[in-house]
Amino acid sequence: MNKIFVGPILLLIAVLLSSCxxxxxxxxxxxxxxxxxxxxxxxxxxxxxxxxxxxxxNCHGSFALGGLSLESFNDLIVGGDNVAAGTATxxxxxxxxxxxxxxxxxxxxxxxxxxxxxxGKLADVEIEIIRLWIEQGASETPDSSLCGN
Length: 149
Description:
mainly alpha, Cytochrome Bc1 Complex, Chain D, domain 2, globular
């Protein structure tokens, strides 16, 4: 009788272990921070949007908490309630330190509200991708002519 359950249990363990990935593992879906080249353009669709999809859209998707949807580039640029009230600029191309988006993910004490995502922190590599994207002009498609790059 014990032999009947060993196969399914081993299969379950194998499936669970195969879904685990860590930085440096070839299955890991984000670049290691050392692999990000500041001279390479950051692509919104393939590098920034996946961060939003995995960490932000539960609150800032169709629900648009705080009036902010991050479902598309245009939604991001429009911003949320703080942008509408004139108290923040969501993204200042070429200037991460003046961008509300970067402020919300990089510090525990942003200029308004709390650090995002709620109850956690983006991985350092994700924060670096957002910083570089803004520093490179925060365009929807990579454009090396922005920001004097």
